[in-house]
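Table S2 (continued). Query chain:
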Amino acid sequence: MVLYRRNRVEGGTYFFTVTLQNRKSSVLVDWVDDLRECIRSVLREKPFHIDAWVVLPEHLHTV
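Corresponding output:
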């Protein structure tokens, strides 16, 4: 695992990418409605704001 340096600033904006281990998978787009519901569920417990996100078959980008 890569050790990233983080500048943690309250109220800051962050960009991150999540990649599936199986890069040939399409699970993120196949189950995108479930992914959206999971995000909604987490938002109810731990409020945060997503400025933008892109969901691709095997990875996603979020700001």
